[in-house]
Amino acid sequence: MKNKIVGLIPVKGNSDRVKKKNTRKFGNSSLFLHKLNQLKQTKCFDEIIVSSEDRKILKKAEKQGFNTHVRKKKFSTSLVPMSDVYRNLASEIEGEYIAWINVTNPLFKAEFYDQAIKKFKSINKNKFDCLLSSFLIQDYFFFKKKPVNFKRYPWPRSQDLEGLVSLSFAINILKRKDMIKWGSCVGTKPFLMNFPQLYSWDIDFEHDFRFCELISKDKKF
Questions:
Q1: Which of 221, 184, 183, 173 is nearest to 201 (CA)?
Q2: In what order do the strands lie in the sheet with 67-70?
Q3: CA–CA separation, 96 and 214 (whole Å)
Q4: Which of 29, 47, 80, 203 could form a disulfide linkage to 104, CB 3.0–4.6 angstroms apart?
């Protein structure tokens, strides 16, 4: 189907830094099921596919009404370069575009996915080869002992600093063929779409997990 956008949700049964972070208890659910519940509220995807080597995860996804992809176990280990994972998954599904969505951004709202897809459809594809979710960090940065975005004198106020853009990987959208060719979900001419930093929070470590869990329990959030 031409212009078909497939939401691809990679979910490993285990992880290195935070054990079983995708499936362990997160609030009253898990990161995995929490993300599926968010995606059920979206209206922008032509199809959503959950990819995993874990049969239990795939069965739960199917019960929630999602399509699934059985990933070869070797592509869920740290022994395989991530570029090979991108190429493998993209080569085994159909669709012109892939929206790569991680479950480790639990605070990212359903409406943001719809906003990203809408923006991607409107951008000039000759000028931009992908859309990357990102957020702005306005802080004092050093690289190799040298200031990056400020001078020592006159000392700038933090609100006047030129911010740096960080990728959140909440959603990256690109052509499926490009993902196979590049072995990446980041192109050379990206459209950077900024979302609030808090909502973009990615879980890499145990303290990230606990922080996001606390925030998600806040009824005012």
A1: 221
A2: 67-70, 47-52, 5-10, 97-100, 164-175, 130-137, 190-194
A3: 38
A4: 203
Rg (CA), the chain: 18
| Cβ(216)–Cβ(201) below 8 Å | no
Q: Are 132 and 193 in contact (CB under 8 A)?
A: yes
Which residue type sits at 127? Answer: K
**What is the structure's pLDDT at 2?**
79
For range 122-130, the mean pLDDT: 96
Residue spans of alpha helices (H) in 40-73: 55-63
Tokens describing residue 116:
């990203």
Q: What is the pLDDT of residues 18-73, one digit of tens each?
A: 888 999 999 999 999 999 999 999 999 999 999 999 999 999 999 999 999 999 99
Structural contact between residues 10 and 100, judged by C-beta atoms closer than 8 angstroms: yes
Tokens 């890499």 belong to residue = 204
Looking up tokens 């040298």 gives 146
